[in-house]
Amino acid sequence: MTSETYDTDPRPSRMSNRFRALWTQENVITIIVSAIVAIAVVLPLITLVVSSFLVLDDLGFSTEWSFGNYVTIVTDPIIPKAFLNTLIICSGCTVLATFLGVSLAWTNARTNCPGRTWLEPFNLIPFFLSPFIGAIAWHNMGEPKTGLLNNFFRDIFGIEGHVINIDNIWGVIWVTGIFFAPLVYLFVVGSLRRMDPSLEDSARTTGAGLFRTTMTVTLPLVMPGILSGAIIVFVTSAGEFGVPFKLSAPYGWETLTTQIFTKAVGDDANHYLGATMAMALGAITVFLIWIQRRYIAPRSFETVTGKGFRPNVLDLGSWKWVAFGYNILFILVAVILPIISLLIVSLHPVWQGTIMLDKITGINYVKTLFFWREESIDAATNGIFNSLFLAFVGASISMVLALVVSYMIHRTKGFGSWLLDFLCVVPIGFPGIVLAMGVLVTYIQTPIYATLWILLLGYITRFFPYGQRNIASILLSISEELDQSSRMAGATWVTTMRRITIPLLKPGIFAGWILLFVIFVRELSISIMLYTDGTETLAVGVYYLTNYENEPLTAALSLAQTLLCLICMIAFRRLAGKEALSA
Amino acid sequence: MSSNNNIDATVRISGLDKHFGPETAVLDFNILIEQGEFVTLLGPSGCGKTTTLRCVAGLERPDGGDIFIGDQLVASYEQDVYLNPEDRNIGMVFQSYAVWPHMTVFDNVAYGLRVRRAGKSEIKKRTMRALELVGLDHLADRYATKLSGGQRQRVALARAIVYEPRVILFDEPLSNLDAKLREQMRDEIVRLQKEVGITSIFVTHDQSEALVMSDRVVVMDKAVIQQVGDPQDIYANPANAFVANFIGVTSLLKGRVIGHSNSIYDIELPSIIGGEPLRLRATGETGIGEESEVHVSLRPEDVTLNTDKPSDAENLNLLEGKVIDTVYLGSFLECRVDVKGHEINIQIDHFENLSRDQTVFLTFRAEHALCLAN
Q: How far is B88 from chain A (nearest CA, A)?
């Protein structure tokens, strides 16, 4: 019918006019949104580059152009060491997290390890918690004199001195390793679980034994996933601030992130030198992310076929209890022990390393959480309110932006959508502390400096791509014909979005929102760079307490934050389904 | 590739059972497959054919019975014998091709030889020969991901035959290919099998594949063998209504035996729309008792359709019915006729002008109407 109208009527029909009007309308939106995203993403990075070539004179009043900062970061007595420490931590963390992630994914997906169905959500809990809190908890357990575990070993086995000392770079590797293991797990478990079993069966029937099949077929097929996970862990640990700040920096092992922080705040702040170090760190992470996206992700093998077969499950015999014990041990050190230690410490007025049942008190919770009470601590109160505000508003704005951007990239495909796609990848390559350094030098002379809005801007710029990826993956799985048939039925673009597209994306939007909410609630490395008195966040509150108050108060607020994250995780799993995180 | 006449490559399965939880996948499966024979396991999905094959391959552990390859016992529930797949010296081709995407075509095919620790020059020689056999020698250095579906299946085939296994197992290898390619690959597999002379077990749900390719067909349904025979035998003399219906097109009429002499049965079909019952004469196995409920199977090509009542039909069955519809299928016309509530399919190779509800007369010989006991 429609084609007849086209054929007989030389003028464009109303239908095609509307299409044409919409086409340009969508283009205009794309350009506007691209411009906003470009300013938010590119401006801080450009300012960062520019600032790195500005050298502050000795008095700290005037600047001049030169490569001086780059000379400084090479010749400085501390910075090259910090750089080396960062490399050691990243390498160690990557090895540990990859080993843990792959072995746990394999036992869960491919062996008859008992309880493998209910173990998985527990294995993923660290993904939702803050490594900074993990460091605080492990400090409480592994500090040589007052550590709970050391005391436990002294009491039970009568050991003199200490068994573990967590306060060094090995401690940083340990904590980051167990906290980033779920990243590798998520990259690997999906392809292990959904791999077409005949890929392995055909190696077996061809004459290869189980071991040979695993080494020549199974592992090579998941290797791109393992490498991707490993690179993401390397980059994430390079940008990690909280753990080295708590465990290694106070004891003489500075890292790039703790050095950037020192140069950004405090008495001898030098933003330009900070920007230069951020440049160095950013250059490494961007390069690695580029390698991952350019060379490794495309090499991922298509190992999933339509035929729904159960994956080959290896019978471990009595070794399955070893596998089970290994998995329980991981959950113990990554989740249960840290939470218990926080709880124990938080119930004491002061912490001296021994549990004193007669001294147990709730005063630390009163001081940190009961904001209406006289004795409440401002940094904690501010942290709670600011973080809830930032997480709520930040997640909401990010998801709206993510929705529009995803639609522009994957549906309208208008002018500039490739640029948008690129801009959404860029922030993922920069650690939060690097981007925050850029935001700091960009907006330091504008009114938003020293307000909550600069934090909000930093949060959204750095993390909205996660929401965007969440929506994009669902958008790509929804047939475009669903939108188109709504349009064919006579609905406008807005009606189609409201009635068809957004309802279909709803689970993804909510899941993405909660994911961002969690990230914002525990966010430390951007906040620490951009906060001032009054704009502390939850993690900054914890930082304040651990720096200027005592461990029990710190533990109380840490536990509150952990609980909030756990609740969000449960909500996330409810909404997004079990496999939502798998890469 | 030399033929494997010198090694014993029969496959003997006796009393094979396999359960998945409460479900019975295979029940009391028995067969002796001769050396060099091409046997097809045919049946609807979930009938147990793939499970049987996987038991032979060693990818499933039987819950009962024995499997011999040659004189080697490879699996026995009673004697607690179970050889791993890699120790059975078999080849297998999978439905999803299962060509390894991280290896080249050459490496895929050479895999079995490398596992068997063949020498370098021998690996090269035999791999290239296998690739020549399937016509892919020019693509040896290509990665498997760059191949089409048909080419991947050829790689899988070369990979399975390159080390000259005793038996080759096919698990619906053609069902992922499009119609044209499927026929081409089908002929190629048959040619290759005859050339190499290797004992083959082929699983499919496609009856035309089974009829064209096999020396013998095993029809399965609901975990149980329904019939074993050569293709002509299965088509012409189905053992029961399931086989008759599953192999080719047939009309199944429900009736009752009212008289018989030897293998000739007189059958009464109740009129579903009321009125006089229908009578016809059919042939079947001896021993179906009087008053038994039976199915009569009529192949569409065995029924003649007449627009006028034929005068010379004394020795033939004659049924009067009304045309339901006709479907044009290119080389012939398919016509559905309603005979007092029974539906009969007829294949007409000459063009007829038939209108809906037109009265027609169907004639067929007693030996073409198969009486099948329930």
A: 8
What is the per-residue burial (b if ≥16 Cβ within 10 Å, else e) of A81-90? ebbebbebbb
- Domain boundary among the residues B220, B242, B264 is at B242
Tens digits of residue pLDDT in B269-294: 888 887 788 888 899 888 788 888 89
How is chain A split into domains, by residue range?
33-59+362-583, 76-357
Are B129 and B77 in a shared domain?
A: yes
Residues B225 and B47: their CA atoms lie apart, in Å, by 9
Cβ of A205 within 8 Å of Cβ of B160? The answer is: yes
What CA–CA distance (Å, rounded) separates A513 from A471? 10
**What does the pLDDT look like over A46-86, one tens digit per residue?**
999 998 898 887 766 677 788 888 888 888 888 999 999 99
Same fold, A33-59+362-583 and A76-357: yes
Closest to A33 in 3D by CA, of A428, A502, A420: A420
- Which residue, of B218, B242, B266, is where some domain finishes? B242
Whether A208 sits inside 8 A of B86 (CB atoms) is yes
Residue B204, domain member (yes or no): yes
Q: What DSSP assignment string belongs to B136-197?
A: -GGGTTSBGGGS-HHHHHHHHHHHHHTT--SEEEEESTTTTS-HHHHHHHHHHHHHHHHHHT
The answer to whether residues A580 and A473 touch, using CB atoms and an 8 Å cutoff, is: no
Q: Tens digits of per-residue pLDDT, A100-150?
A: 999 999 999 888 999 888 898 899 999 889 999 999 999 999 998 888 998
Asked whether the beta carbons of residue A206 and residue B84 sit closer than 8 angstroms, the reply is: no
Cα dihedral B361, B362, B365, B370 sign: negative
A202: which chain B residues are within 8 Å (Cβ-Cβ)? Answer: 92, 94, 98, 156, 159-160
DSSP letters, A187-246, are: HHHHHHHHS-HHHHHHHHHHT--HHHHIIIIIHHHHHHHHHHHHHHHHHHHHT--HHHHH
* CA–CA distance, A218 with A203 (Å, rounded to integer): 10
Q: Residues of A278-293 as b/e, b for ≥16 C-beta within 10 angstroms?
A: bbbbbebbbebbeebe
Tell me, which fold does domain A33-59+362-583 have in CATH? MetI-like fold (1.10.3720)
- Amino acid code (one letter) for B2: S
Inter-chain Cβ pairs, chain A and chain B, closer than 8 A: 78
Question: Do residue B209 and residue B347 come from a single domain?
Answer: no
- CATH number, domain of B317, equals 2.40.50.100
Name the helix (H) or strand (E) containing A54: strand A54-56
Separation of alpha carbons B150 and B280, rounded Å? 49
Kind of pairing between the strands at B72-76 and B81-82: antiparallel
* Kind plus residue range of the DSSP H or E element containing A41: helix A14-52
Mean pLDDT to the nearest integer, A522-540: 92
What is the CATH T-level fold of the domain A76-357, as seen in this structure?
A: MetI-like fold (1.10.3720)
Whether the complex's predicted ipTM is more than 0.85 is answered with: no
